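Bug report

Summary: structure tokens for Gfo/Idh/MocA family oxidoreductase differ between web form and batch submission.
Environment: batch mode, default settings.
Steps: 1) Submit the sequence below via batch. 2) Compare with the web form result.

Sequence submitted:
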Amino acid sequence: MKIGIIGLGDIARKAYLPVLTQWPDLELVFCTRNEDTLKQLARTHRIQDAVTDYRGLVALGVDGVMIHSATSSHFDIARFFLNQGIAVFVDKPLTDNYQQCETLYELAEEKQCPLFLGFNRRYLPLIKPYLSDSSVTEGKKLLGLKWQKHRLNLPGDTRTFVFDDFIHALDSVNISGQVSENDLHIVTQSHQGKLARLDVEWQLDEAIFQASMNRLNGVTAEHVTINYENLTCHFDSLVTGKQWDEGREQALALPDWTPMLDSKGFTAMIAHWLDVVANGKMEASLVARNLNTHYLAEAICQKVKP
């Protein structure tokens, strides 16, 4: 399988290349407009084919592309490859405009071509079982899910805040993928004309879902709390946590020596993406969740006036 990597910035180098370059039977093609970066990384990772124009990947016969470039470029690049019938992975967000998201998924449906989004938090090995495996929660009813992703001294404009960052927390609690904008309760704080804090919550089947981001927090941090009937789990930094079941406390942790990118969900997400490329399709429920998360992000932007 041959995969084109478009955009070789910080996230691609830190989170994706360490996994992809070690994947068996996978051939990579690098693409970035910076020739010096292209030559350096191609040499470092022993990549034979590299181009500065993403359109050149078609002639090289790629089976799929992974887009890690700036959000503003996602729509044009994704549309180009979908029109070529080539599977597309986009590091979240798909775009920062819901209408464009709909356009791309309509095109993907027309071309019968997968359009995959990179939400690594869906694959966190320590947390995912509590949201997808009833045997772990002993069949107890979900009562609440709260995801907090905070940053130090980083107020920003609303659309960038919501689509480029808050969307992580928003998607992580949007496990049903069926939330209406009328379900949302939104609370905000502003600082010097910029959005500083955003809290969004809704209730579905009696469970309460909350996504929170404070960009004037004392420290960059991420916390997750999951409540079932008399069962509570709290996770810090996504890789350690505690469980309280009927008053009994238990430490939660991954096995020693678990690679960092495994613990952060990137390895499992990439495995899922490559399986989608190989099979040429992905689950309808995944498409629905991807669209619904971006729909909610757009609704929040329309309602929030910093």
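Above is the batch result. After comparison, the two runs are identical; trailing whitespace caused the diff. The chain has nine helices and 14 strands. The chain has two domains: 2-118, 122-260+283-303.
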